[in-house]
Design goal:
Length: 450
Amino acid sequence: MDQKPKIGYFPIGRIHFDSRLAQESAKALYESIKDAGFEVVGNLDVSWNNDDIEKALSTSADEDLDIALVLNTTFTDSSMVKRIAERMDAPVVLWSIPEQWRGGRLRLNSFTGMNLAAHALKQSGIYYFYIYANPSDSDSTQYLKRVALAARAVKSLKSSKIGIIGEHPEGFETCDYNNEQLQELFGVGIKTFSIQEFFNDIGRIGVDQIKSIKEKLSNEIDGMDKLEQDAIDSSLASYLAFMQLKKNNGIAGLAVRCWPEFFTELKCSACGALALATENRLPCSCEADVLGLLSQILLEKLSGNSAVGIDLVGFDFEKNQAALWHCGNAPLDFANPKEQIKAIEHTNRGLPLLFQFAFKPGVVTIARLHQMQGQITLIINRGKMLDLPGPYSGTCGIIEFERPANEVYKMIMDLGLEHHIAFTYGDVVDELEVTAELLGLPVINLINNR
């Protein structure tokens, strides 16, 4: 996360239990979450009744919280928890404390309080997370971070707008989308542009702007001077027009009809423009693939890194490997530092600008919002990008999944998975699963099919 996760802290209890131990527990968890890197809104004082919780809520009312953490220091009824959940525009995490079994008084009865709260929230249709652990438990504070990161990503998505340039090509049902369904599930706004509208925008890009970015790329990328310069200029103007759309319309990503019109009318390839925009935090998908774009956006928000849409183009079952490839649209920061990035023509259309490099090695997370017969499911996988030469021209790499490649292959075909998948560097599998919970999406985890 670019900034500390912000947590609203609400320790609650009943004075009739061991109030001294309850207050000690509240202080211990407060210190634990601060030490874990949270910005904590609220304080370590236990709220013992509804008047106390109203005072605590008043201090948090105007805060943009990622999560609201309710600690049952002791048994309570559900009234305080319900007040918190109904007032906070953030997911609720319930925390209760294990109590030692050694005879004598049940001093806290914390779990029963959490149990009562869970029933009340479920009955009211309010989603919640829960933790049963000691305040010092580091695994639990890490889980809190995952929930906070996912909650921030979902909130950001629900306030986002995406752009669609043109329509997906005929026969690409994998790129279909249902506008009403996207509004209901993700809350994301959609702004459409015709291809011609966008080409008009390109025509307004200044020559000096194109020249500046061209000079910069020529110093970093091999072969720019060997390609058709008018076509390169059109590709770079497309990139600058993409970024202008972001600035003028507040767009978080673009789904672009990248062919055939870029080739036939603009006389260039869109791939290089898509790569540059994606690297500069405007995720772009090919072939106007809207759910593919949303998959990229989710991965980018969770990982803090670029995320690209790509084709899985083949398997080597004996080596337990698969090839990921696309024409040349991957962001430049995905390149293996061992090799020089090259500027190339599109291998089928003979027009620039594309980039060519093998992907850098490292752990990657794969995601796809999968649409089948009206149901959207989140498909998740994880693997290791290998330090190997690219299997083809363009931007590509060889991946080793954690699950045997022949099983991944079979599951992809049995699911009828879309041909575009999205990936980013880093492991955000757990965060994706929490995100799916918040969005109410079913998950198919190809790592272990859980």
